[in-house]
Structure formats: C-alpha cells, structure tokens
Amino acid sequence: MTRFTVNGQPVHYRMDPETPLLFALRDASNLTGTKYGCGMGQCGACTVIIDGQAVRSCQVTIAQVEGGFVTTIEGLSRDRSHPVQQAFAAEWAVQCGHCTPGFVMAAAALIVGNANPSDLEIDRALTNLCPCGTYPRVRRAVRRAAS
Ligand code: FES
C-alpha cells in the first residue's frame, strides 16, 4: 500500500507501486483535471505539484511519492480561483483547454519562488506543449499572476 497526501487529504492506493501517479490520480481518485497527453514526459499536460515542485505525473510512480504532498489542479485553490487561473482567464490563455491544467500548475509552482519571472524564466519553467499555440498568452498570464 502506498500512502501520501493529495490536496490535503491522506490517500492510500492498493495498486502496483509502479503505477504512474497520473493514473492513480485519474482512475483511483477521480481527479481528472490532471490530463493525459503523451505519457512520455514530453507535453506537461499531466503536471502536478509535489512538495512544491512542478512534476510530470506520468513520469513518477506512486511508490516514488510515498510520504509526499501532491497538489492537483482541483486542490490548487480552495474557495476561489487561484491567481494563475484568474490570469489565464483574463489573458484568454486557454484555447481547447486540454493543456491548461498542466500550464497552470507549472506556473503556480514558478511564481511561488519568483514574483517577477523574466520571459526566459517563464520559458524554462513552462516547457509544456500547447497544440493550439497559446504560448504568448500563457506568458502574459504568468506575468500577470506574478505581479
Ligand atoms: Fe505526462 Fe505528457 S502526459 S508529459
């Protein structure tokens, strides 16, 4: 059995410890805001925050998260939209929306430690892929959320 915390709640999964965190979140915890994109660590659609760091959840097993603190898009903000979510809406940084939760999680992790990220820092922290090409609007949204 693997135990850790997801969105402030203790979880224990009775599944193969090598199960990718992404599948445990989506299939066992019904936290479907975390998206499957490539399953290969390339697209970032599955990004969650683990112990303060943006992590691609398709690339970590639940065993690797043992004892850790996971935040998904559902747990990013309890009562109202997180500033990053508000900024994404204000800057129209969403098109089809499939990649958006991953971008939001990566941006949220970035601005916790950096209240004034440069374009280069944003580009380095958000290597997520958006087939719709919202990158300029995403960058503006991250700057808005950080300010
Ligand atoms: Fe995890 Fe693409 S689904 S990086």
TrEMBL record:
Q: What's the domain of life for this entry? A: Bacteria
Keyword terms: 2Fe-2S, Iron, Iron-sulfur, Metal-binding, Oxidoreductase
> Is Nucleus included in the keywords of this UniProt record?
no
Q: Which residues form the 2Fe-2S ferredoxin-type domain?
A: 1-76
Which molecular function GO terms apply here? 2 iron, 2 sulfur cluster binding; metal ion binding; oxidoreductase activity
This chain's protein is named (2Fe-2S)-binding protein
Q: Which residues of the full protein are shown?
A: 1 to 147 of 182
